[in-house]
Design brief:
six-stranded mixed β-sheet, binds magnesium ion, 251 residues, branched-chain amino acid transmembrane transporter activity, Rossmann fold, BCAA_Transport_ATP-bd_LivF, single chain, 35% helix, 11 helices, alpha/beta, binds adenosine-5'-triphosphate, four-stranded antiparallel β-sheet
């Protein structure tokens, strides 16, 4: 059950904050198209939440609205991160507040090496993990530090995109289909890294078409269907519920 965050008590907000990240009655539009239709869910500190649903359900739109991108337009609702009102922010302010969106296309910057991509992420404070620490987490990136980022394999580019997010001091990682187009053995590698990142206390929302893999990693799951939430509960519950999987995830 979601409870509307109530910060009216000033310093006592910790008593009323329902969760680390709280989405409340969010509605999002692309122009006239009503896509995210009043969704509410919570993400607890340090957990991995799988955000699932069929193609076009509104998963990417939800992540973009949380990250406060210019589109979609969030016309109604609230988003709170660690007592900060994200819904009043622009994307650069949300980024400074601790939101990191790793988009599906990974957005590696052309013309820059792996290391330059990481350095660029650290150009302004707040700086997160050191480059040495990132290379410990991603030894493949260390080996390829002088290689141009866009020439990396798909899996390596995904690692670079995640590393770049962690190069900044973030509170929540929003991952849009990190396993897309990757061989199972590379998915294993990225999954292992996501577990290590979780152990470091980072909170993650994981959007994935590969629902089984996402559910095996996640603590909880939210399932979207045409812009509304049809399930909010534990990840294992979805794995065990054949009906739910067949109806909304086609697995
Ligand atoms: N820029 C846009 N302008 C207009 N409509 C859009 C735009 N982006 C997405 N949509 C529409 O919004 C709906 C939700 O799209 P969204 O990308 O959020 O789905 P998704 O759940 O991420 O799907 P997928 O699994 O295919 O990535 C779809 O009907 C899509 O066509
Ligand atoms: Mg999407």
């Amino acid at each position: 059950m979601n409870v509307k965050p109530d910060f009216s008590k000033g310093k006592n907000y910790a008593e009323t904050a329902p969760a680390f990240l709280s989405v409340w009655e969010m509605q999002a539009y692309y122009g006239e198209s009503y896509i995210v239709q009043g969704i509410s869910f919570n993400v607890h500190e340090g957990e991995i939440l799988a955000l699932l649903g069929r193609n076009g359900a509104g998963k990417t739109t939800t992540l973009r609205a949380i990250a406060r991108m210019d589109s979609p337009q969030m016309n109604h609702g609230e988003v709170w991160l660690d007592h900060q009102a994200l819904h009043n922010m622009k994307s650069h302010e949300a980024a400074a507040a601790g939101i990191a969106l790793v988009p599906e296309d990974r957005c590696i910057i052309p013309g820059l090496t792996v290391e330059e991509n990481l350095e660029l992420a650290q150009i302004a404070p707040p700086v997160g993990w050191s480059i040495d620490r990132l290379y410990e987490l991603f030894p493949r990136l260390a080996e390829r530090r002088r290689q141009e980022g866009v020439t990396l394999s798909g899996g390596e580019q995904q690692m670079l995109a995640v590393a770049r997010a962690l190069a900044r001091d973030i509170k929540v990682l929003l991952l849009d289909e990190p396993y897309e187009g990757l061989a199972p053995v590379i998915v294993d590698e990225i999954e292992k890294t996501l577990r290590l990142i979780k152990e470091q206390g980072i909170t993650t929302i994981l959007v994935e078409q590969n629902a089984v893999r996402a559910l095996e990693l996640a603590d909880r799951a939210v399932i979207l269907d045409t812009g509304s939430i049809v399930f909010d509960g534990s990840a294992s519950e979805v794995l065990e519920n054949e009906e739910l999987r067949a109806e909304y995830l086609a697995i």
